[in-house]
Write a structure and sequence with these properties.
The chain has helices spanning 10-24, 33-38, 41-48, 60-68, 87-92, 102-110, 134-147, 169-180, 193-198, 329-335, 340-345; strands spanning 5-9, 27-31, 54-57, 75-77, 96-99, 117-122, 150-156, 188-191, 206-207, 233-245, 250-251, 257-258, 263-268, 285-288, 291-296, 304-307, 319-323, 352-355. It is elongated. The strands form three sheets. Strands 2-3-4-5-6-7-8-9 form an eight-stranded parallel β-barrel, surrounded by four helices. It has a six-stranded antiparallel beta barrel with strand order 10-13-16-15-14-17. A two-stranded antiparallel sheet has the order 11-12. The protein is built from eleven helices and 18 strands. Helix content is 27%, strand content 24%. It has two domains: 10-218, Alanine racemase (TIM Barrel, Alpha-Beta Barrel); 233-355, Beta Barrel (Lyase, Ornithine Decarboxylase, Chain A, domain 1). Bound molecules: pyridoxal-5'-phosphate.
Length: 357
């Protein structure tokens, strides 16, 4: 059997969820969209179900997968419905629904609903992706109430730059949000992971942590709370071939690495078809036989090469951690010029093995 696999530590997941709660004193929706950032949405939801105030996903297809697996808690659809004909299913399964656009508001007004909806009314406070314009916000709130089709409304917005600790944009977004909701007596939800970790002064009845649940920092710089996260996923494989090369020999596609001296090279069963980033360059950290080393040359589809020159205890069959408890996913992502969100979401082909249930 091919030795590539992702070990998922559900105890670490629960620790990180609890940390989000502790840091904020708020209710927390565990964001498990995109198959829980590659960790497996059903298993993650089941592991958190006793603890979590609810879950958030991107679309009804993801929400239905949770219900089909028996997950009963609240599930928020972060983009609401894409077509009005999803509304009966939303009611049937008791999903909570973001309303981010006037067309969605109109669809609710026109729908015949057997039960009232729970709506999270989203304001565009400056990110300019989705969300109602501040000038329409009050009116939308009143129209939802007047429709008779809504039982509860939570006011929400989303930060564009909370991962930049010395940037004032988040404060400006809070000010826009506070102005737009003045006079509306409803709970609010603002904070994603970087805001939970780095912006203690932002108040929010509900928080929406995603990446921090999986134990990766959203910050590109050092940040105090990051050290308290426990990495959930360990992506590992084994050395399947060892080569001793003299100086001046190329390694891998495109001869992107040429040995500067005699070297010992390990070939690892892991490649970009597993989701390991193809753009990770020579020097990207790996752990082999318990010792830090580095990637060499181009990542191929099913294999990559690492440096064993200074790791004499490593050889055929040695375990390699590509990221996990020792090699942070965020460091690998940075080396590959991307973010841990993407390298987790890209995971595929690799079997996931769960522990800590
Ligand atoms: C994905 C998402 C989150 C979670 O963001 P993280 O940075 O992973 O914590 C929160 N809120 C909304 C609206 C999202 O789309």
């Amino acid at each position: 059997m091919r030795p590539a696999r992702a070990l998922i530590d559900l105890q670490a997941l629960r620790h990180n969820y609890q940390l989000a709660r502790e840091l904020t004193g708020a209710k927390a929706l565990a964001v498990i969209k995109a198959d829980a950032y590659g960790h497996g949405a059903v298993r993650v939801a089941q592991a958190l179900e006793d603890q979590a105030d609810g879950f958030a996903v991107a679309c009804i297809e993801e929400a239905l997968e949770l219900r089909a697996a028996g997950v009963r808690g609240p599930v928020l659809l972060l983009e609401g419905f894409f077509e009005a004909d999803e509304l009966p299913l939303i009611i049937e399964h008791d999903f909570w629904c973001v309303v981010h656009s006037l067309w969605q508001l109109e669809a609710i007004e026109q729908a015949r609903l057997s039960q009232p909806l729970t709506v999270w009314l989203k304001l565009d406070s400056g990110m300019h992706r989705v969300g109602l314009h501040p000038k329409d916000y009050h009116d939308a709130y009143q129209r939802l109430l007047a429709s008779g089709k809504v039982a509860k409304i939570v006011l929400m917005s989303h930060f564009a730059r909370a991962d930049e600790l010395d940037c004032t944009s988040s404060d400006e977004q809070v000010a826009v949000f506070d102005a737009a909701r003045q006079g509306l007596a409803a709970q609010v939800s603002l904070r994603n992971s970087p805001s939970v970790m780095g912006w203690p002064s932002v108040s929010s009845d509900w928080v929406r942590p995603g990446i921090m649940l999986y134990g990766a920092t959203p910050f590109g710089e050092d940040q105090a709370v990051a050290a308290r996260l426990q990495p959930v996923m360990t992506l590992e494989s084994k050395v399947i071939c060892v080569r001793e090369l003299p100086a001046g020999e190329p390694v891998g596609y495109g001869a992107r690495f040429v040995t500067p001296k005699p070297m010992r090279i390990g070939v690892v069963a892991m490649g970009y078809a597993d989701g390991y980033p193809r753009h990770a360059p020579t020097g990207t950290p790996v752990l082999v036989a318990g010792q830090r080393s580095q990637l060499l040359g181009r990542v191929s589809m099913d294999m990559l090469c690492i440096d064993l020159t200074d790791v004499p205890q490593a050889g055929l069959g040695s375990t390699v951690e590509l990221w996990g408890k020792n090699i942070l996913a965020s460091d690998v992502a940075t080396a590959a010029d991307t973010i841990p969100y993407q390298i987790f979401c890209n995971l595929r082909r690799v079997p996931r093995l769960y522990s800590g249930t």
